[in-house]
């Protein structure tokens, strides 16, 4: 399997900005297509007071800063030019869970924004799905209910389009209170049962547990996702969580190992967070170019790239 999808993160919440304009983004989409990427997922349309597109809803309800360029329009243009599917990432209040809004207020803001987005961009041919940006790693009833209600709302507007989530593993590389595989399975069996009908694709992040433990989590995730009638993808992170600073491009050997483990687990598709920062030859990280070159070497040896 090759990586055939990537997140787009231009609301740079916890990684540095590439500060790209249309020309740089156009070149990056061209490079993505050249290595077989056919799906791009905007990780979020807004976080806190920052947004990627003008929005009356976010201006009134989230007091966003002025938006000078519509990046959604740009990404849709480039996705259409390169025959890619584009998933729209919803708004993230960044309060995890909200400390300023009640559940009803949080959900209503999300629904109002989704309505606005669908009216403005829903006709575009590249608009192929929704990404529900709230992340969780274990049972958190507030966030699960947010996901369920927002996913159901997207289905009401566009029943023909899939909804996607990318949860994390509540593991020791991320948190101080990691949960066991058994507890993970118990939580996610319950969570996916709640989300059935509102979520179609689940792409677990793969960077929060030790490499020795990852295959067991990957297999368990695929079994749980399939059990609940959803598609199992794997978010093969291309940044490194094992070094003492955040976040450099991943060592190629680690990426290769994780890709193999994901393929052996039986997932349907590999995506990454995130090509433009951590794998692109044009990234602000110099090491990303080297990771790109090693990945291309791998594809050539496999006969997947000229």
Automatic annotation (TrEMBL):
Taxonomic superkingdom: Bacteria
Residue ranges of every copy of the DUF4434 domain listed in the record: 3-285
Ranges annotated as spanning the membrane: none
UniProt cross-references to Gene3D superfamilies, sorted A to Z: Glycosidases
Listed name of the protein: DUF4434 domain-containing protein
